[in-house]
Write a structure and sequence with these properties.
mainly alpha; two-stranded antiparallel ribbon; 13 helices
Length: about 260
Amino acid sequence: MTTQALVGSMPQHTTMSSSAAIGRGYATGGYDWHRLHAAAIDQRVDSPRRPGIRRDPATQASKRLFDILAASLLLLLLSPLFIVIAVLARADGGPVLFGHRRIGACGRTFPCWKFRTMVPDAGAVLAELLARDPAARAEWERDFKLRNDPRITRVGKFLRSTSLDELPQIFNVLSGDMSLVGPRPIVTDEVRRYGAAFHDYVRCRPGITGIWQISGRNDTGYGERVQMDRHYARNWGFISDVLILVRTPAAVLRRSGAY
């Protein structure tokens, strides 16, 4: 079954660039983001002739209830695995968890938890690499990722390739910052690349899994990721969430696009 068969055909809308002021406003929560980004709303979605078509995933009680129940069950079942990974991550003397600031629903930022997969001085290692390697710098500016990342530990490579490093995001789901299914959580520097689609992104809680995760992950282009997030926000449904969850284990086992 293709991704399009799962969630329908992907809309092809042209995005417009968001200003730096809007980017700052979303990231800090200091602005009325509904007002500031009103010009970016696609009238075909918000037209009065189609009442009730917009259902912000972040405000759906059924989605939130499912998240709490399913995340609680997963945490109980996976607790032995959490302990094993924590011991391995701690072996090099660094912290077990790493919280990276990401943007969530309504533009609020939150610490997105992962098992630490990088060396303790990862920031310095990255800065040194980007300063001396133009190819790595171009890759970082394009994807915000490096296929051959010198910061990643041996244990970290395994955790990333199997997506086990993302298990602590279950705590983010329970706290209400994330959902089991949703857009890929992004950092502030990525807001400008979303353009008008950022308005759709902030209608959702970011997800541990989603359309991008079951569609090849890093093997897809950045523009495709943005369209996937926009499509999810505009076409969310409980059944499609369940289908994405069902398809996630197979995508993890294939390890396609995971690094």
